[in-house]
Write a structure and sequence with these properties.
Blueprint (H helix, E strand, L loop, with lengths): L1 H25 L9 H23 L2 E3 L13 E7 L9 E6 L2 E3 L2 E4 L1 E6 L1
Parallel strand pairs: 2-6
Antiparallel strand pairs: 1-4, 3-6, 4-5
Helix pairs in contact: 1-2
């Protein structure tokens, strides 16, 4: 029961971090183009994200190394889709959908990826 609760809790936290990462990547406004309320909200979101990232780091949880062009490894990556792209070699990562996490070499959550067939 305890392990299931631990795993469930951290999977929820990792999902929240993934949402913040998605927000951060897709937020295109510049400070000059934002209204005061939008700017303050953005600062608040990023502050919460940094606090979560720091808390995870204190627990020695780190992201699984994973980037476009890396060789797919089923021990650390979860292929959510496949594609055919001539720019990439077979069985390589074309896109990282969500980060994976590990602690002391133990996989807590695999990285979600799209791979080239």
């Amino acid at each position: 029961m305890k392990k299931d609760l631990f795993d469930s809790f951290f999977n929820d936290i990792f999902d929240i971090i993934d949402d913040f990462e998605l927000y951060r990547k897709n937020f295109n406004s510049t400070k000059d183009s934002m209204g005061k309320g939008e700017y303050e909200s953005n600062k608040s979101y990023l502050r919460i994200y940094r606090k979560l990232a720091l808390a995870i780091k204190k627990l020695k949880i780190e992201q699984v190394p994973c980037k476009e062009g890396d060789l797919f490894n089923p021990n650390f990556h979860d292929a959510k889709d496949v594609t055919s792209d001539k720019k990439f070699k077979e069985n390589t990562i074309v896109k990282v959908i969500a980060a994976g996490y590990q602690r002391n070499g133990k996989l807590l959550k695999p990285a979600s990826v799209i791979i080239n067939k």
